[in-house]
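Cross-posting from the chemistry board since nobody answered there.

I work mostly on the small-molecule side, so proteins are not my area. We synthesized magnesium ion and want a rough idea of how it might sit in this target. Sequence and SMILES are below. Is it possible to get a predicted 3D structure of the two together?
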Amino acid sequence: MVLCHKLSTSDVNACQLLDPVADFEKENMVFWKKKKEPNPTSADEGPKTPPSPPSESPQASSPVGWLRRVLGKTNELLRTDIRDLWKEGGRLVDDDFLRELYAILVRTDMGAAMASRIVDSIKDQYRGRRVEMEDVLKVVRERVADSLRSRGGSLKLAGTPPSVILVVGVNGSGKTTSIAKLAAKLTSQGNRVLLAAGDTFRAAAVAQLKVWAERIGCDIVLGDQGSDPGSVAYRAVQRAVDEAFDVCIIDTAGRLQTQSNLMQQLEKIKRVIQKQVPAGPHEVLLVLDATAGQNAISQAKGFSEAAGCTGIVLAKLDGTAKGGVIIPIAEQFGLPVKFIGVGEKMTDLEEFSPTDFAAALFT
Ligand SMILES: Nc1nc2c(ncn2[C@@H]2O[C@H](COP(=O)(O)OP(=O)(O)OP(=O)(O)O)[C@@H](O)[C@H]2O)c(=O)[nH]1
Ligand SMILES: [Mg+2]
């Protein structure tokens, strides 16, 4: 069930949503490290240098046009390669053409299964006839959208608040930033959001989320460095229940899907949540770094098995040519892609639309 719990005016004021200066700052805020503010992570892991974010928001143009610019590099790769197939006008659909098409499709990271399905469709529809590039792209768009749509899904929130969302993933995939963006989105929709700084592995991680919480204007439960992340989750969920928060989002330390002790720690966090909210966590969101390409697939495999993930946030889709990787991830693990991260700003998180995505990628 998807819910938007409405706030009272006093709650809204408490979240500073009516402050135009704060709104402007939120709209234009880039990741806090870029603002030359104290950078707590730099002390223990060095600065992160992400690609430049797009300056446009989906509201500024049509969703497909905007997404096409975000996915520019992936789109470019495909267009350049596929255009080569049509050097001499319309092409006869024969074995050579189908082989070349398959090779080009596989290079977009969409996976061999999807590439084969598309090639089979083209063969069935057009074998022995001449096709134009647009005919082929139309089939590609349809097959990709069908596949992604069957695994689509919006964020699930509880019928009775609080909803608890656990966020997991490997180091640096974009968890904390995605949490901040999601908290900002949910807050702007009228939810009271509580963050839990469950990455107690590094003091800097707690500070990073705290800065975001201040900027969003939402509450946060902190944990001391080295403390049990389960205890932070426990305190946060308890507070969310006691103080009637709508959503509690729990950050976790980055980990590899192969570190079984750390994966067990996630299980413990889930049990701790369930002590107070038996139906929780309502979502276990796996944040994947789109720039990791095929590696993101093995991450999805390990995490979806070990952490019982319910959905994916594909971060850093801007500036990568590997955006097609979303297709095999959704296909192989049956995990719906719920959000895409398209930059470092607070507003750079979009609900995933399979149709828009397919249209933007293969136009
Ligand atoms: N361009 C771009 N950069 C992003 C996006 N999401 C996150 N980043 C950047 O990626 C870097 C890592 O993001 P974090 O949110 O700290 O990642 P994390 O998974 O919490 O990292 P750890 O806590 O160290 O495991 C930061 O520099 C972010 O600004 C995105 O959608 N686009
Ligand atoms: Mg983090």
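Reply from a structural biologist on the board:
Welcome over. Reading the output above for you: The first strand starts at residue 91 and ends at 92. Residues 1-59 have pLDDT under 50 and may be disordered. Happy to explain the token format if needed.
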